[in-house]
Amino acid sequence: MERRNTKTKEAVLEVLSKTGKAMSREAIENKIQTDINRATVYRVLNRFCDDGILHRVVADNGKQYFAICTNCEDKAMAGNHFHFRCLNCETIECLPIPVDFTPPSGYLVSGVNCVLSGTCKDCAA
Amino acid sequence: MERRNTKTKEAVLEVLSKTGKAMSREAIENKIQTDINRATVYRVLNRFCDDGILHRVVADNGKQYFAICTNCEDKAMAGNHFHFRCLNCETIECLPIPVDFTPPSGYLVSGVNCVLSGTCKDCAA
DNA sequence: TTTTTATTGCGACTTATTTGCAATAATAAG
DNA sequence: CTTATTATTGCAAATAAGTCGCAATAAAAA
């Protein structure tokens, strides 16, 4: 399916590239000046994930967070690094720490979703 | 607060110890013969987690799964091992692989939630 | 047997995310 | 520039997971 450029897409990408962190749909929407429909934002985010532009992290609060793929060469391994959720400032960052593991023989791993939580550097200071 | 023994608690623990895997509230309820209210099951599960008898895993589908703590000495680090979600049989297992990482300096980690997904040994065979 | 209060069931509620559908707008075609 | 095509959007409603208040029930102690 062909893709078209829209204000929503541009705005979402801009917000995400500015913060560098992983953001929830709500946070993204709040950062965007213009009013965009919730469903639309989700659709844009999901599309970007499909296209390998963003990766999705599901935190231990059950919510989805989205971040720009910087080192997600392999689509299947998008998000193949640790994420950190600060319970204080409710922020999610991509840590520059790759998730390292050797699956038991016979297991095929196609997705990695690793989230550490606690207090981030800024809040701990 | 004092704890009382009830059929629900016994049933939940029995189901979980029999499978050895991590189960969703729904799966647990289905395995129990008698009818138990959803809210009650959640309350029992949450209580068990608080008491360090179970640990909770939030999978990348956003759902909670519960498993008996076997090697969860440190309560704060409960679930400090990888989990595997099979996209085929929708089963979640605790892998005997500890999650190993060194958080960036300044970060305080109090929780670990790591889920790999793909095809499990049985389904891949 | 009575008392105390943890536990349960019920129903309603919240929150996150998705979906159908008709209206709108980006882009290609003429 | 105008028109045609169809991706995208907004809206409203639907799903789904999990939680909560409250009155009724039932462990366990007295």
Q: What's the number of structural domains of chain A? A: 1
Summarize the amount of helix of chain A as a percent range: 25-40%
The fraction of residues in strands of chain A falls at: 25-35%
Provide the CATH top-level class of chain A: Mainly Alpha
* Secondary-structure element order of chain A, N to C: HHHEEEEEH
| Fourth CATH level, the homologous superfamily of chain A | Winged helix-like DNA-binding domain superfamily/Winged helix DNA-binding domain
**What is the count of helical runs of chain A?**
4
| Widest β-sheet, arrangement of strands of chain A | 4-3-5
- The CATH topology of chain A is what? Arc Repressor Mutant, subunit A
What would you say the CATH architecture of chain A is?
Answer: Orthogonal Bundle
Multimerization state = homodimer
The 3D shape of chain A can be described as globular
State the distance separating the first and last CA atoms of chain A.
48 Å
- The total count of strands of chain A amounts to 5
Mean pLDDT of chain A: 92
Radius of gyration of chain A, Cα only, in angstroms? 15 Å
Greatest interface: A-B, 39 and 38 residues
InterPro entries (chains A, B): FUR (IPR002481), WH-like_DNA-bd_sf (IPR036388), WH_DNA-bd_sf (IPR036390)
Pfam family, one (chains A, B): FUR
Binding site for Zn(2+) (chains A, B): 86, 89, 120, 123
Keywords (chains A, B): Metal-binding, Zinc
